[in-house]
Amino acid sequence: MPDQEPQPRDPVSELASFGEELRREREIRGISLKEISDATKISKRFLDALERNDHKTLPAPVFTRGFVREYSRYVGLNSEEMVNRYNFAASNDDRIEKPPAVAKYPQTPVRDISPKPAAKRGIPSAFALVDTNIIVAILIAAALAGVAYWAIQFKRRERERTDAANAVPVATTKAAPVAKAPPPAPVAATDDSMLRLTLEATGNSWVRLDADGKSVLNTEVMAGEKRSFEASDRFRFRTIGNAAGITLILNGTRVPPLGEEGEVVKDRIYDRQSLTELRASQDSQ
Prior knowledge:
The protein is of the alpha+beta class.
């Protein structure tokens, strides 16, 4: 009797028997699907689908092979042998979606490496012949010259302003001996309806001044500045930082020097009584 050739194994039946074998081995050992799921962290739904050969529920084969390996290892089967059996059955099963084939070595496009003629260069413009660094240096020099000119002019104006301010008290001092005649009485009587204080700065000084209890000045007065204030009852200087740098005129009467250079004067009050005393002092001289 002639020898018969062995019939090829049906991959579908092989895959079905594979899932049944897993279930049979599990039940022989008395292991539940929940126990495997808790130990391997694989969803019980996937383990059940693996035993029932439900490939619509199972994920891609690459993940299913991992399930087979962990399942087999837990129940005591040869995990690599079971994975190989699953691969054989799954590779011939049309029900399992397979990834599209990709060419292993895609053809590389041919690159043209033939020599190319050099690009023609036209005659450069006159501007292109000038070094860019020279242009930048000229612009920087012009900017520096402008800044230097501005600084010189600013210092000159400041010096002229300072000289003009310093000339004011000198002119006033020289004019004082000439104007020795007593001030007209009618004008003084009219001005006394309000206290009028004129402050002239011959040097920088910080001044805090109140008029009738309200602050009217609290800042540094610069040399050359002149300010005027009015009050009904009195003026009070809380602070004069540089006594020698401040000159006061109260209702047309010059107040004697307040102190020395750099001396600080505090709580100096000028009211109607002070005005009377100042005029009496000048009349007696």
